[in-house]
Design a protein that fits this description.
The chain is 2% helix and 55% strand. It has 190 residues and is an all-beta fold. The strands form three sheets. It has a six-stranded antiparallel beta sheet, with no helix packed on it. It has a five-stranded antiparallel beta sheet with strand order 9-8-7-10-11. The model has no long low-confidence stretch (mean pLDDT 86).
């Protein structure tokens, strides 16, 4: 167990705050006029998925969370339940809620291997791939000269997710998505 100073609580670090594991989403150390510096952070609770804001003061120390990972395979989703199994043993299945999977879950294809984060042997959230290559299954046709709206249209991907893409993307194309932002990156094939 290592303790972090207030200014060492930076982005992508895992900490224990009020007995719960958190991932630091953003941090900003600043000083208001004659006061002591503070670190204004946004923290994501790894158990519930909720994001909160907290300011660490110069006198505070916080425990760094020891997070373990294990590889799991995504199987399918059914009625708000997300089913996974251990990557080596498909008989050892388990389900999690949509909140535990997070918004990146809508880009998961069946049989995708992801990392599950564990805190004190308790399963928490998942570490998703940053990019995903997905097939477009439904795209409205492009209308010639329709670029006054910025050249975007909404398409449906093979996972059921919908995103904005440029007008030249058609049904059947395979596109690369940034799963963190949910944005189109590039077209990678047919």
């Amino acid at each position: 167990m290592s303790l972090l100073e207030y200014n060492e609580v930076t982005e992508k670090k895992f900490i224990v705050h009020e007995g719960q594991p958190y991932e630091v989403i953003s941090s900003h150390v600043f000083r208001k006029q004659q006061r002591k510096p503070v670190n204004a952070t946004k923290l994501k609770n790894l158990m519930t998925g909720k994001v909160t804001e907290y300011s660490f003061h110069v006198s505070e120390k916080v425990e760094e969370a020891e997070i373990e990972t294990r590889e799991v395979k995504f199987l399918y989703t059914n009625r708000g339940e997300w089913w996974f199994c251990e990557s080596e043993d498909s008989a050892k299945r388990f389900k999690v809620t949509e909140d535990q999977v997070g918004p990146q879950g809508k880009f998961l294809k069946s049989n995708t291997v992801v990392e599950q984060l564990l805190f004190r042997d308790t399963p928490m959230s998942f570490k998703m791939p940053i990019t995903a290559d997905l097939k477009v299954i439904d795209a409205p046709p492009s209308i010639k000269g329709d670029t006054a709206t910025g050249g975007q249209k909404v398409v449906t991907l093979e996972t059921g997710a919908t995103i904005n893409v440029p007008l030249f993307v058609n049904e059947g194309d395979v596109i690369r998505i940034n799963t963190e932002t949910g944005e189109y990156r590039e077209r990678v094939g047919k």
